[in-house]
Hints:
By secondary structure, this protein is mainly alpha-helical. It is built from eleven helices and no strands. The radius of gyration is 19 Å and the shape is elongated.
Amino acid sequence: MARRGEVLREHILDTAKTAFLEDGFERTSMDAIAARAETSKRSLYAHFPTKDALFQAVVERTRALFGERMRTPAEYAEQPVDAVARYCGRLVQLLRWSSVGRMLRLGIAEADRLPELAAGLYDVVFGTTSRELAAYLVDGWGQTSETAGPMADELIGLVVHPRLPRLLFGLDRPVDARPDEASLATDVDLDEIGRLVRLVLPAPTTA
């Protein structure tokens, strides 16, 4: 049965994301996306009048999906240190996924031509994650809104380096299957991340 409405729109977005990640923005045409999505160009343009608009919609859908996979720090553990360590560990775990690596490379490749969209891809992974962590440091750690943001950025920077550069430069091999949160303790050194949490953050003043 032919896809219609929101079902068709989401199918187009998923198809376009795969095409952009595999072939890059410039080399991916609207004709190719319509063919891969098995829909007409008329239907494609009815939902997305330009390729830039389609790319922006892909970014927003990716943001929502990444946020669902990251969740919030409070959902990981009751104790603040464990919650932050596991939240940061989940970020590291997802950064090892080849789909996320290709998305970050796509953002880097399009930074000159489409700086706003490239910034959107950066925000999908790092901006949203930092804001969620900062919010938790205020609510679950007792930090002020002025101190929480810089602390969150510093901690995320320490956690992802040198892991992310090594992945982006091909020194470490990414995983093709989406990382399962159930294997977080096996995939990521949570003890090391916990050490970084204690190094950057003062003792929590709320529990």
